[in-house]
Amino acid sequence: MKQEENRLLRGITNIVRECGGIILNADREQSIVDEKAGHANFVTTYDKMIQAKLKEELLALLPEAVFVGEEEDTHASIKEGYAFIVDPIDGTTNFIRDYHTSAVSVGLAKDGAPYMGVVYNPYLGEMFTAVKGQGAYLNGKPIHVSANPLQNGIVIFGTATYYEELAERTFALAYDFYRKSLDVRRSGSSAIDLCSIAAGRAEFFFELRLCSWDYAAGSLIVTEAGGRVTTADGEELPFGESSSVMATNGICG
User: Fold this and answer.
1) For residue 253, is it within any domain?
2) N or C end of the chain: smaller count of CB under 10 Å?
3) Are 18 and 103 within one domain?
4) CB of 84 closer than 8 Å to CB of 108
5) 222 lies in the same domain as 187
6) Strand, coil or helix: what is 32?
7) Spatial distance between the Cα atoms of 150 and 155, rounded to a whole number of angstroms
8) 79 vs 84: CA distance, rounded Å
9) Of the candidates 116, 142, 168, which is a domain's last residue?
10) pLDDT tens digit string along 46-64?
11) How do residues 117-148 score in pLDDT, each as one tens digit?
12) What string of DSSP letters covers 78-113?
């Protein structure tokens, strides 16, 4: 890894780890929960706090970058130069309920394409990282997707309750995969789900609508681990835009 890339990745992981500490030490009784558009679409005091910290410290690390965060009302273009694409707490409902499946997700794009990805699950102390063309890692050790076919695989799926119009199709697909695979799972954090594919813990992931901050980091981690990420129809993922997402070990799907 080039010296500058190493410095940048190390800086991002240090910032993200500190944000994970905020999640672990959160006082939920003092956290204000607001609803955004759609059913059960929440934002908490800690989402906003962590995003503010990420914005300040990531831009100090790379001042020429733009910042795209989930909790902002307007978003800059990522087509030219560097862009941080951030989800401060992926799995907010899990966080509210103290259900330990949430992550801090930071993707860094370069000229509209994925360049670096960092996903941190503070509950397990798992830091997933990837740099374009340099493989994927978990706590500094290389990871790779599994070689299992679908019939010997685990399928993970996501469905946000605020996209109610997609629920019936999603659960129909999940039932179909349930019949064809070992079993299905639903965690409530797409960032963690994508990293589970990358680490060989599961073989197939799908969600019919995700925003760019949901998959910006995790999608790169999957591809650098030898997997494949497309839309649900098998088309090229329109990086930086809302889209369906399908991630596999390259054998399933």
Assistant:
1) no
2) N
3) yes
4) yes
5) yes
6) coil
7) 8
8) 12
9) 142
10) 999 999 999 999 999 999 9
11) 999 999 999 999 999 999 999 999 999 999 99
12) -SSSEEEEEEEEE-HHHHHTT-S--EEEEEEEETTE
